[in-house]
Amino acid sequence: MGKILIIEDEAAIRRVLKKILTEENKNYEVSEAEDGLIGIELIKNNDYDLVLCDIKMPKMDGVEVLDAVMKIKPEIPMVMISGHGDLETAVETMRKGAFDYIAKPPDLNRLLNTVRHALDRKSLVTENKRLKKKVSKNYQMIGESPAIVQIKEIIEKVAPTEARVLITGQNGTGKELVAHWLHQKSERAKGPMIEVNCAAIPSELIESELFGHVKGAFTSANKDRAGKFEAANGGTLFLDEIGDMSLSAQAKVLRALQENKVQRVGSDKDLKVDVRVVAATNKNLKEEIKAKRFREDLYHRLAVILIAVPNLNDRREDIPSLVNYFSEKIAKEQGTTPKTFSEDALSQLKDYDWTGNIRELRNVVERLMILGGKEITQRDVEAFASK
Questions:
Q1: Integer Cα distance of 175 and 181 in angstroms
Q2: What are the domain boundaries of the chain?
Q3: Mind giving me the DSSP string for 2-63?
């Protein structure tokens, strides 16, 4: 269903436009405004999917309406209606953010095509916002311990820059979460975030995965394939467990960072890339450098900003908040009601040795929600959360 507002001072034209639109699609809900001031008030108080707005109107002209809408609800597509003498102004409105313009008298096919395209764009914008909101909810940083507060403060300062970040910490501490926060709060948030788990890809395939390959580069390369650097163009490339990357791949990553260029495996052609690299590792890279398993020059390229994610044992005061968050999240996933945890149960969980960190805590919360009573008690924890 499309909710459309027509702002036009000539009643006859409003009637014609409304008739065309409602006959085209019975699901179009069309409202009218006789001048720009009334139109702005309607836009403030309603969620329109499209606005058709005349340029020449008394009280407030279409250009002023467009400027106001761009400030209050810029996601609404604005289609300007121009008289014969308004063509130059109509083109100028496109530069200001209008979706399109239609000349008077409106051509039927052009009008309907423009309306369809504008509504399709509005639908895409709405869906993208929904997906981004969903992604943001999936990557929340829970806790107010000093260590977590410090990480949040660093992210706020670093995310808007282009500085490369190296995230360190044990498995299960939330390094991926930090990387997602950096991306979401950066100027690149509208671009892609591409993740590569360097430990999960065989060393002989890592270069093809990162840089792509051309047809015939190796036995199974039956067609050209873009790599992750190309896929992340304009966004962020997250290299997880970079300490497991082969030395030959490290050399190529170093070149990519130095020159903002990559070469597909089997090609000598340079491809320009615009990528912010965020890396993570559970290893001590300085020890890896001493053992000649990691390039020192690459380390210094990656570690412009260092973020050390603490073990759960070092932030036990965050456990009650994490338990509550996981309880609600798991209940939503399973279509059940979140369970409360007694103070004794929370105290017991705070005393555990969390060698698997947050990942282990989440598994324990899920187990307790399935096997425990309506309220999770200390007895439930002792019975079901044992190592």
A1: 10
A2: 3-135, 150-310, 313-384
A3: -EEEEE-S-HHHHHHHHHHHHHH-TT-EEEEESSHHHHHHHHHHS--SEEEEESS-SSS-HH
Superfamily of domain covering 150-310: P-loop containing nucleotide triphosphate hydrolases (3.40.50.300)
Instruction: Give the architecture-level CATH label for domain 313-384.
Output: Orthogonal Bundle (1.10)
Task: Specify the pLDDT at position 132.
Answer: 52
- Burial code (b: 16+ CB inside 10 Å, e: under 16) for 60-99 equals bbbbebbebbeeeeeebbbbbbbeeebeebbebbeeeebb
265: DSSP letter: B
Superfamily (CATH H level) for 3-135: Response regulator (3.40.50.2300)
Average pLDDT, consecutive stretches of 10 residues, N- to C-terminus, the chain (387 residues):
90 91 88 94 93 91 92 90 79 87 86 88 67 57 92 94 96 94 90 91 86 82 84 93 92 91 87 93 96 96 96 96 94 90 95 94 95 92 81
